[in-house]
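Please review this one:
***
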Amino acid sequence: MVTKKIFGFVLVIMFLLLGSSSAKTYKVGGSNYGWTIKDNSWTEHKEFHVGDSLVFEYDKNVNDVTQVSNALQYESCDNSSPKVVYNTGHDVVTFKEPGHHYFITSNHIECVSGLNLDVLVVPGPSRPSPPPPSRKIHGPSRQIPPPPPPPPSKILPSSRMYAVGDSSGWSVYNSYYYEKWSEDRHFRVGDTLFFEYNKHINDVREVSNELDFESCTPTSTVAVYKTGHDLVTLTRPGVHYFVSLKTGLCHAGIKLRIMVQPSTEDVTLPDAPKKLSPIGYLNRWWLRFFRPHH
């Protein structure tokens, strides 16, 4: 009886632990409103991860769900080149990658009235993979040999996400602050920068050369970000320049220059010692005892 109780208690604990790391499903707008409420505050105090899903419920004769690619299309309610359009009235969208996901309705009046959704998705929490199923062998018991070791492989550094300026964000009027912040970090292709700021007074612009960076001139703009919480993935090695060009903030010191290294390091694990065949052992034994001495 005691053993059964302990076993039951262990099962409950395992269920709770597995449930805490499983993907979540959110009904957009909550259970009372669905995809009709024109208020983005629904996303507050929620953290969305890769693997989570959104459920959009709405009247398909009035609205749809149009996913667009960038903040500009989102803010202007531009549905001319959508990534995907959902129109069943009960759509389930699963997040497969981190970053901003922008949703609007192609009903332009509803969209400009506020029926849109900007969701920031962060990389999903690591989930332990389940143990392999036990293999039962009928008859005399024998030990199953372990699988062979993998071949030598390269060590690939995992990508990282950096919050620019740490807790101060993209708002410190001192270029030396961001210079010092970047000195202690080693950026690689595949890493992501997270810029957080007040979008009403600031923005993020990537420029392509040192002259534009030093002079705060946007003649070589590579990209513009203005959502207030931007994720910028570093896709190439070399020097990257970021400035703010709203209301003279670049001249006030909100600028960042970083050096990005290639994504891989050619570090190879040593080869495992080769296993000799029976003939190899015989040759070694023969040479050891019968090698002629000079």
